[in-house]
Amino acid sequence: MTEPTYDQELHARRASSFGGHAAAYAEHRPDYPQDAVEWGLAGAAHPARDVLDLAAGTGKLTQGLVDLGLTVTAVEPDEGMLAELSRLLPGTRALTGKAEDIPLPDESVDAVFIGQALHWFDLEPAFAEIRRVLRPGGVVVALWNHDDNEVAWVAEFARRVRTGVSRVFKDENEGLAAAGFDPFEDHEFPHAHRRTIDSLLATVSTHSNFLVAEPAERDATLAAAREYLLAVPEAGAGEFDYPLVTTVFRARKS
């Protein structure tokens, strides 16, 4: 199947589609494996204390950073997503802002984390802002959860629902580079998301290409996906671990 060409208007609609579904996003999106987060932190020249979660959404990554005992500031442009984050993590500093205009002082954080969001940024001004707020030797870390396509039934499910946004952007960012940063390193970590058929389809429904799809197309695709999953032994009875891979890119401020 030929990949669709880039559509700026569609890209913008998808980027802004999450806020009205913030509660479902918080409930059904996966977290990030701790070893992936720790690998990102290890890219800094010194132990991290103050961390920015940029485009933090509902706090999926924020929670993991808080659990490591870090002082975390979450920045998110969407009011609905930020409200859900503040409800779930009331003790975390949460600010309205975007990657291209970060509401933090110069050299105020040791690490900037970006979970499932770098592909929405205007990269040149965003990286300039990230570099501005990082202390010397600080690190930028971008993470994506995506389907483990080495597992045959997962690859077929992903093909049927065509929700592989993060896979597409991961592939496009294999050669990621930014002015003022050392060369990016990348690493993959196995991950899993405990699901049922219903909750897996609920997860898929929070992906931007479903959120902006025509209702008839969305409903037909989900119905066909359900029929497929019912025939998959690994998914057909109760809860199961849906196989994921978490890809992490990190680069130190030079």
Automatic annotation (TrEMBL):
<dbReference type="Pfam" id="PF08241">
    <property type="entry name" value="Methyltransf_11"/>
</dbReference>
<dbReference type="InterPro" id="IPR051052">
    <property type="entry name" value="Diverse_substrate_MTase"/>
</dbReference>
<dbReference type="GO" id="GO:0032259">
    <property type="term" value="P:methylation"/>
</dbReference>
<protein>
    <submittedName>
        <fullName>Methyltransferase domain-containing protein</fullName>
    </submittedName>
</protein>
<dbReference type="InterPro" id="IPR029063">
    <property type="entry name" value="SAM-dependent_MTases_sf"/>
</dbReference>
<feature type="domain" description="Methyltransferase type 11">
    <location>
        <begin position="52"/>
        <end position="141"/>
    </location>
</feature>
<keyword id="KW-0808">Transferase</keyword>
<dbReference type="GO" id="GO:0008168">
    <property type="term" value="F:methyltransferase activity"/>
</dbReference>
<comment type="similarity">
    <text>Belongs to the methyltransferase superfamily.</text>
</comment>
<dbReference type="InterPro" id="IPR013216">
    <property type="entry name" value="Methyltransf_11"/>
</dbReference>
<keyword id="KW-0489">Methyltransferase</keyword>
